[in-house]
Amino acid sequence: MKLSFKNIEKQFSGLQVIDNFSREIDDGELVALVGPSGCGKSTLLHIAAGLEKPSGGVMLADGAPVQGPHPERTLMFQENALYPWLTLEQNVSLALEFQKNDKQQSRAEARLWLEKVNLAGFESYYPHQVSGGMRQRAALARAFISHPKALLLDEPFGALDALTRMTLQDALRQLIREAGPTVLLVTHDVDEALFLADRILVFSPRPATVLKEFSLARHEKTHDLSEFAAMRREILGLLGIHAEQDDVAKLIEEVEV
Ligand SMILES: Nc1ncnc2c1ncn2[C@@H]1O[C@H](COP(=O)(O)OP(=O)(O)OP(=O)(O)O)[C@@H](O)[C@H]1O
């Protein structure tokens, strides 16, 4: 699905959050949105999802104006939104049952998707009985089961520790390769953006405008991101973080773990 942001403006009670944002996101492309907290990244995702209406400009999905939410454009949040009173299988299956699919068939398909995200054997567990990483795996299965044409991911792994985040990034990349949706990814983790994205948009503080765009398409990537060191430094610099500060932040993170 091609997503087109055309001269998007957004204000909330006089607060200008998005200022004339225009970009085309190609079918099957993964674009990461990186920027300071509160600059308006989630607002852009909500506009693409049809949850918020722009104050100006137009949002198009495959050339048609976005009028509201649609299962073709699936949003996934950081805090997994699994229902605590349903098992993992029921949670994943629900995405299909909502679309009036046959219940037994939906359950069978949910089991297949849970297997794809390495959760075979945990179908009848409740969310509180599994780890945060496992809950996000289930949330990924639920996001992919209805074969969305666009996936809108808002800090999907932000609440996880660094190691779990990496294994989830691998799982996400594998699912994307198989299913080929267009993906918009909001992340605070520059390494996550470098690892997953074909393109990175770095935003200014509010109102969000694009400071710089980085293309990473056609790179065969691993978690060893040393070939992107210069780009990483530049992105962090645009965000006002200098390498030494970043190292200190990492050190603090390690000490806290
Ligand atoms: N529904 C809303 N009503 C009023 N103000 C809103 C609404 N949604 C967002 N805002 C405001 O718009 C600004 C941008 O919020 P948004 O969540 O898009 O930022 P963000 O870049 O995703 O931030 P973060 O990285 O911290 O999640 C904030 O000042 C926020 O308070």
From TrEMBL:
Residues 3-230 form the ABC transporter domain. It comes from the Bacteria. Gene3D superfamilies: P-loop containing nucleotide triphosphate hydrolases (3.40.50.300). Keywords: ATP-binding, Cell membrane, Membrane, Nucleotide-binding, Transport. InterPro entries: AAA+_ATPase, ABC_transporter-like_ATP-bd, ABC_transporter-like_CS, ABC_transporter_ATP-bind, P-loop_NTPase. GO terms for molecular function: ATP binding; ATP hydrolysis activity. It holds the Pfam family ABC_tran. Belongs to the ABC transporter superfamily. PANTHER family: ALIPHATIC SULFONATES IMPORT ATP-BINDING PROTEIN SSUB, TAURINE IMPORT ATP-BINDING PROTEIN-RELATED. This is NitT/TauT family transport system ATP-binding protein. It comes from Pollutimonas bauzanensis.
